[in-house]
Amino acid sequence: MRGAVGCELIDDGWRPIWVVCGMAVSERKCRFADVQYPSYDDVMREPDIRTDGWCLENGEAYHRAAPETFCIPERLSREALQPGDLVKLIFRISIDDPDEPEAVERMWVLVRERIKGGGYLGILDNDPYAVAENDEFWSGIELPFWPHHIIDIQQRDENTLSLACEEPKRRWL
Fold first, then answer.
1. Are strands 142-145 and 119-124 parallel, antiparallel or unpaired?
2. Please, what are the domains in the chain?
3. Most CB atoms closer than 10 Å: which of 24, 60, 68, 166?
């Protein structure tokens, strides 16, 4: 179901978030629509390379290892993302190569919504170079991430805000 872009959630004490196209993060009501949405709170998990075939690298760790050459946005910026913003994340991907069983790629993710615990749900906006096209890990899938994963940010515009309203090819659960 689609709702109003930018309607504020009625909150139970933690920082208010914004709903894009009716996609809420827990069973709360949008002020402009009397609709309840499914909760992600109890089932959200980080991607795992053994389970999912890929995982996210810690961008803060890369920055600590090389602060002069590996710059990342300030923590406050990484914690204040809005639907439609684009973020760059580092993905570790399992591949079928006995010499190098994992590839590392930097890819853009479109922010869809904020999740409890300070994370986000987004949509992969790139096609991975290291793997062939598939339904499990390709552009358009939904994935969770947290501020420590983010290595770059591009501010939203009308186009990316519209794209954040689109249904993902595959939901994260």
1. antiparallel
2. 42-164 (2.30.30)
3. 24
